């Protein structure tokens, strides 16, 4: 369990297998917890409007993606 203060910018870092991806998946609702609840501002994340959630949370995946085109 952890708490992130409002208006914070947070980087989640750690060793392989420490739960970074699981944490990101829970915050973005790419996964839901099998036990307990994820709350944002005291509100169950499952009750937050998806557009509002997407506007508030950003995720940079660990696997990079390269485009197969030139950028001009």
Number of helical segments with 4 or more residues: 2
Main pleated-sheet profile? 2 strands, antiparallel
Radius of gyration: 15 Å
Based on Cα principal axes, name the global outline: globular
Structural class: mainly alpha
Order of helices and strands: HEEH
The helicity comes to: 10-25%
Strand order of the largest sheet: 1-2
Number of domains: 1
How would you characterize the overall build of this protein?
This protein has one domain (1-60). With 72 residues, the chain is mainly alpha-helical. The model has no long low-confidence stretch (mean pLDDT 85). The termini are far apart. The longest helix has 8 residues, at 20-27. It has helices at residues 20-27, 50-56, and strands at 39-40, 43-44. The chain contains two helices and two strands. It has a two-stranded antiparallel ribbon with strand order 1-2.
Topology:
Layout: H1 20-27, E1 39-40, E2 43-44, H2 50-56
Antiparallel strand pairs: 1-2
Concise synopsis of the structure shown:
The chain has two helices and two strands; from the N terminus they run αββα.
Keywords:
single chain, 72 residues, mainly alpha, 2 helices, 21% helix, 6% strand
